[in-house]
Batch of 2 targets.
Target 1
Amino acid sequence: MAEYNRVSECVGLITLRNPPVNALSAAVRQGIVDTVQRALSDPNVKSVVICGQNGIFCGGADIKEFGSNMTGPPLIPMIHAIESANKPVVAAIEGSALGGGLELALGCHYRIAHSKARLGLPEVSLGLLPAAGGSQRLPRLIGVPAALNLITTGRHVTAAEALQLGIVDQVTDHNTVAAAVKFALSVAGRSLDPRRISTHPCPQQPDLDALFEEVMQKVRQSARGAIAPIACVQAVRAAATLPYAQGMERERELMATLFTSGQARALQYCFFAERAVGRWRMPSGARWDTSKPRPVHKAAVIGLGTMGRGITVALAQTGLSVIAVETQEKQLMEAKQAISGMLERGAKRRGVAPALDGVIYSQNIQAVADVDLVIEAVFEDIALKTKVFQQLSAVCKPGTLLCTNTSALDVDQLASETPNPELVVGMHFFAPAHVMKLLEVVYGPRSSPQAVATAMQLGKKMGKASVAVGNCRGFVGNRMLKPYIEEAFFLLEEGATPELVDQALEEFGFPMGVFRMSDLSGLDVGWRVRKGDGLVEPGTASGRSARIRQGRRYSPLGDLLCEEGHFGQKTGRGWYQYDKPGSRVARFDPWLHSFLGAYRAQHGLVARRIDHQEVLERCLYALINEGFHILDDGIAAGPEDIDVIYVSGYGWPRHRGGPMFYANMVGLAKVLERLEHYQQLHPEVPHLQPSSLLRRLVASGSPPIHKWGEAIKKLHSQL
Ligand SMILES: CC/C=C\CC(=O)SCCNC(=O)CCNC(=O)[C@H](O)C(C)(C)COP(=O)(O)OP(=O)(O)OC[C@H]1O[C@@H](n2cnc3c(N)ncnc32)[C@H](O)[C@@H]1OP(=O)(O)O
């Protein structure tokens, strides 16, 4: 797991070997301890180089080991042994040096990086802190403000930035190991005292207290209840104010709390879940590893409204050539200007040239004749989309993949309007499409595995968390959102306020509660859908019967606000009021509160006191319950798919792992018991009726989440 060679006669070369990322597993740590010892005791060796195989230095501690009893040599003494060595040790950094990998490099006396390498201490994103001395060495090396920034955000820096910050000593465009060996030869015999970072004092910083106060405030605000970022600030404070040994002790104490926390488990689950969703599978048995994607060199986007523009930008930024089609000349010109602006701003942020030439604009659908893939993003209207699909089928070369960007329409129905339904998939982007991480790739029973593989690969290229899901109303994300929103409406009827509901959800960790979110996205969106479903009735009827529609409890509150022209932020009025249309600061709306009072009186509803716990249980368990239905129906292949969708697209707090992980943490029996409780109180609400999968999982002993897949298979085979 760590190979030893002597090169250039007097350099001991240690190569970490643990594919794919040379994580510091017990065997790798043992290998490092042994090979360092060997190099130091060999009188012919004057200096040492540590590198990683296959162009990657080290991806950090082996995260898979965290859940089990850790064995093997611990990291901290291993790194100390390197730092206190009497021969210079040089880290040759290619690919990544992350977490424990960078901490290992910080224990070395010198660091040489390849220009394409990335370095960072991302432990915070796993619910941890850099506890192999990273929180104590980095501030000593680069100063407190820069170290705070890196450690609390977990961001990766380029080699150029690492050089500028002083993390690395040299950057090379050539063979990094060769450069490190040359460097190691040049420094052999030099005094190492100034190179041992742990012996440095932290660089002086004026007004340290004010700095930590300010950073702590910022971190608390953005952490939304996550504890690791706060512990990171505390650890860096220890580096700035305590001698090294005491700082290390503080680092150890803080890590001990984080290491066993539910948040760390949730965040580490998210790390693996995000990778697991790439290994998609369909109910037909088709899978990621047996389905070859088609190459996509040229793509087209049809319809350049908000979604089409964002999708065009996302595609162009991957380096694809894109034909952007909009039939109306004025809209085409406006879109061209908007897309160019987005490309220019994005390129400026990333320090690259804007891909303006990658987009060709056209008013004519014939222009897409030779593309490999089309994403249709016209208005959400099945008749319009059907017409576009029929035109595309006539125009495109054989084999072109036809994708529809829809959040609600039936992908199968569209597919059935084309001569080649196997080439049709849904690509559900989230606005703004060039920014939002999530992409639902929606397959129907006739979508070919190759079409799914191609859309999934394209999503990955665009940097999206791409999740393959089956076709159903609302797919996964919006289907689960429906009971969540409905429960929030019911809570208002029963006595809650938008402020109370939102506060409970925001304290849970959502960036916005359901009502602030609804004001942002526009109340008219849901109104249009409910009208389409025949649920909206002109509103003077009163009493319970007026609130039962299509045989189930219905709250017309959202419809009534829309009838008043209160569409949310865009009209300046919604569940809150705003200074002016378009303004974002939500304020208490006295009108809304008297409206709610009058509504309750009209319907004979008596307001009662509702607490945060009830808000969370009713909104979240209703949403989770729908997640179990989705798993049972085979719409999502596993709980990870649902959780990645919710964390990357719906603001579910990452440190709570996603709705299904949260249910697993709360305990399935408890979720079932609370759903049964609320269902008894509200028998006319079907979404509170516990899913049969949830019942069966509880009956089978509530297996842990990583065993649900197996349990579901077994339960299905028993049906
Ligand atoms: C005392 C505690 C001390 C230290 C704490 C730590 O060091 S915590 C770990 C800190 N390190 C990280 O957070 C890095 C995590 N990894 C990554 O960011 C990326 O994997 C990386 C290294 C940039 C490579 O990205 P790439 O896109 O090339 O590959 P991918 O992410 O798909 O990973 C490939 C497979 O490797 C597995 N993996 C990656 N890192 C680790 C790790 N640190 N431990 C265990 N496994 C790791 C990853 O799950 C993938 O596995 P697969 O089975 O193929 O899905």
Target 2
Amino acid sequence: MRLDVFSIFPEYLAALDLSLVGKAAKSGLLDVRVHDLRDWTHDRHRTVDDTPSGGGAGMVMKPEPWGEALDAVAPVDGPAQPRLIVPTPAGRPFSQELAYELAAEPWLAFACGRYEGIDARVAEYAGERMRVDEVSIGDYVLNGGEVAVLVMVEAVARLLPGVIGNPESLAEESHSGDGLLEYPVYTKPTSWRGHDVPDVLLSGNHALIAQWRHDQAVRRTAERRPDLLAAWGGVVAGKDDAAA
Ligand SMILES: CC(C)N1CCN(Cc2ccc(Cn3ccc4ccc(-c5n[nH]c(N)c5C#N)cc43)cc2)CC1
């Protein structure tokens, strides 16, 4: 997979050189290219913003640098086009489902806006030749799209074959698989500062362990994400499961 990221703070994306995404890039599973949007400005101040049409607070990102950047990186007459992801508070919710969908794409491009956002004509223009998704990572306000891109790239990259060591763990995660939050995890020592690993996990009885983990997942989901529990609609083994 090829990933292009456009930002006026390219150093913000240095985190993509680290850990899981960094290893995937070094191994050739990912081709990550970060671009400074100001490379497509032509004035002395490398201007990327201007006042909002119609008035209002703040500044809006000018369309010209974006148009030139997209044309340079994904030429109109090129052999392929990326799927363009534009983080915005007004976007469709990012989800594990969308992460899986994006993980199947050969080429993604991310447009990191700043100020009050990007001139709307940029998405319109790009939409004439590539799929454009305006996406939000949650109902809270950030100052720009870079953090959202780091979130989405990590969520997508870890789904790519060969990126994480144990693909089986993907099936048991929250927001994947059975729709429940995952159960609490423990490791050694079995007793730590007066807190013990639950006995069932030391029993060696895999059926009991599986049931306990399921019950814990249902309880956690009921406590923290009742909306997921409703969607899950699964059979709760005992009436006390969710309350246990
Ligand atoms: C009335 C008028 C003055 N208000 C002006 C502020 N408007 C909302 C507003 C607020 C902040 C920003 C800053 N910003 C610039 C690019 C950008 C990309 C993503 C996000 C972002 N925030 N939260 C998320 N989940 C995001 C994602 N994904 C934020 C971004 C952009 C836009 C609401 C209207």
